[in-house]
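Hi V.,

Quick status before I head out on leave. The structure for the redesign project is tokenized and pasted below; the design run finished overnight.
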């Protein structure tokens, strides 16, 4: 049976629900893809993924690794998209990623995909035999592998072309940003010495993960008690005690590198690791957009302090843009 893009996820969910065991060889995974498998705790599942090409968001892999009935291995040269169930299999072009099943919450649609549902005995026998060969060649996933995958994914994410990439941010209608993970990260105090020391230690460990000659992402941090929303864009805005307001950089969180520390007075603090990115949802954040956004922030400075979805200083961009001037 032929499977088109609009039916791809539905057919996968149907196969998963109806099968007693599952063998999955899918290269790239996106945010939320683990939900297809992680809510099923009464059947054995084997998964092979690719963590080395920058196409996998490691967050769902971390989640799946915690499930007792799920085994997850990695294979560096995996590019297949195969899901083998009981009496049925799906072979096609779609990853369990943004472009494959439109999984990521920050993008518009994905590629046009196609696949085939197979249920004849010979095909299933050949697929199972093929999967076992791959499984035997695959290796376990370490915490270091996850950290590397997170950095590779963020690097790939910041470089890839996305819908709307030819549009400057402030030329979008405010409604475009509703329920999208773009925030103003407003702060008025600089980090403590304990937080700085913790950051430098994390940065040193990160740099040791990157092979010599490989380009590194520009790692930065905020001192904060809460976790930032996953897969979000943070526009860093400084509001000084004397009324100064400035837009600094755009960051994406790297939660797998977050680190706690203990302050001199015995309280626990957190360093939230972020990396500099060049765009927001694939859109240009050029000089004109920065200027327009800064003027908007200044006009509504007091109102911004009253808005906060996660805490007092993390403000959804939509909330600002929707305010009447």
């Amino acid at each position: 049976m032929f499977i088109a893009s609009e039916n791809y996820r539905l057919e996968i969910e149907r196969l998963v629900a109806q099968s007693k065991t599952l063998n999955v060889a899918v290269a790239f995974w996106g945010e939320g893809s683990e939900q297809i498998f992680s809510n099923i705790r009464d059947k054995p599942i084997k998964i092979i993924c690719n963590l080395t090409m920058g196409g996998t968001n490691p967050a769902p892999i971390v989640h799946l690794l915690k499930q007792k009935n799920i085994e997850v291995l990695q294979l560096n040269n995996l590019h297949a998209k195969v899901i083998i169930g009981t009496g049925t299999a799906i072979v096609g072009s779609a990853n369990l990623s943004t472009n494959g099943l439109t999984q990521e919450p920050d993008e518009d649609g994905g590629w046009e995909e196609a696949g085939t549902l197979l249920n004849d005995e010979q095909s299933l026998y050949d697929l199972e035999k093929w999967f076992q060969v791959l499984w035997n060649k695959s290796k376990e996933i370490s915490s270091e592998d996850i950290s590397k995958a997170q950095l590779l994914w963020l690097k790939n994410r910041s470089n890839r072309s996305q819908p709307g990439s030819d549009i400057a941010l402030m030329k979008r209608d405010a409604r475009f940003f509703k329920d999208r993970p773009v925030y103003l990260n407003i702060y008025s105090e600089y980090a403590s010495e304990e937080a700085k020391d913790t950051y430098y230690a994390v940065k040193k460990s990160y740099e040791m993960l990157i092979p010599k000659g490989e380009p590194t992402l520009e790692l930065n941090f905020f001192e904060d008690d809460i976790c930032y929303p996953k897969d979000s864009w943070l526009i860093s805005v400084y509001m000084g005690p004397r009324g100064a307001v400035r837009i600094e950089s755009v960051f994406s969180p790297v939660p797998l590198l977050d680190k706690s520390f203990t302050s001199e007075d015995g309280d626990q603090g957190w360093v939230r690791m972020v990396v500099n990115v060049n765009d927001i949802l694939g859109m240009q954040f050029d000089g004109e957009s920065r200027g327009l956004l800064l003027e908007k922030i200044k006009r509504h400075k007091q109102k911004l302090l009253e808005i906060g979805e996660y805490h007092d200083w993390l403000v959804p961009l939509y909330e600002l843009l929707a305010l009447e001037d």
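Above is the designed sequence. The chain is about 30% helix and 25% strand.

G. will cover questions while I'm gone.

Best,
W.
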